[in-house]
Design brief:
Helix content: 40-55%
Mean pLDDT: 79
Structural class: mainly alpha
Strand content: under 5%
Number of helices: 3
Radius of gyration: 31 Å
Length: 72
């Protein structure tokens, strides 16, 4: 009888599956699985960076010659 139950996949008694602590553990495992799956997908995808609208542009020139001065 035990061998038939193991082959069928019912290792734990049915009464144990409906206890409160088993439901809490099942919920924990479900949330943990979803979190690890999300982290794995986030690691595989390329990093998303917000666009920088002012990339390479400064509010004022930083060179040794000011932009307004003209040499004759």
């Amino acid at each position: 009888m035990i061998a038939a139950a193991v082959r069928a996949g019912a290792v734990l008694p049915e009464a144990l599956l409906f206890t409160d602590w088993f439901r809490v553990m099942a919920a924990f495992v479900a949330v943990n699985t979803v979190m690890y799956a999300a982290l794995a997908v986030a690691k595989v995808l390329p990093k998303v960076q917000p666009p920088d609208l002012r990339r390479g542009q400064r509010s004022e020139p930083r060179g040794i010659h000011p932009a307004d001065s003209r040499e004759p």
